[in-house]
Design goal:
This protein is mostly helical and about 110 residues long. The protein contains two helices and no strands.
């Protein structure tokens, strides 16, 4: 009995059809050949749902923490930030008083 448990804990789970290693117990099919994997190699539907729900909760918590950090860092920014705006729009032929040719050929 103990030898069987040791063997199971040391063995890497593999697909019964193609023999490739099962890396993701969440996915019920072999990632290489698509064979449906036996229950012992993958999580049950209920276990998968619990894991996915836990992932969603953790992901939401991380997102909320990032939002909180962004608000904190934006409130700490200096209010004297200087911005320079450059208008690159049309000047209707006015060259800014350089010869006044008016034809737009500055």
């Amino acid at each position: 009995m103990i030898e069987t448990l040791r063997k199971q804990s040391v063995e890497t789970p593999s697909c019964p059809k193609c023999g490739k290693t099962v890396f993701n117990k969440r996915y019920p099919n072999c990632e290489f050949c698509g064979t449906v994997l036996p229950e012992g190699l993958v999580l049950s539907a209920e276990e998968r749902e619990r894991v996915f729900e836990q992932d969603r909760v953790e992901s939401d918590a991380k997102w909320q923490e990032r939002q909180k950090q962004e608000k904190t860092s934006s409130s700490k920014r200096k209010s004297d930030d200087t911005y320079v705006y450059v208008d690159v729009g049309s000047n209707n032929g006015d060259c800014g008083g350089h010869g006044g040719n008016g034809g737009g050929h500055c």
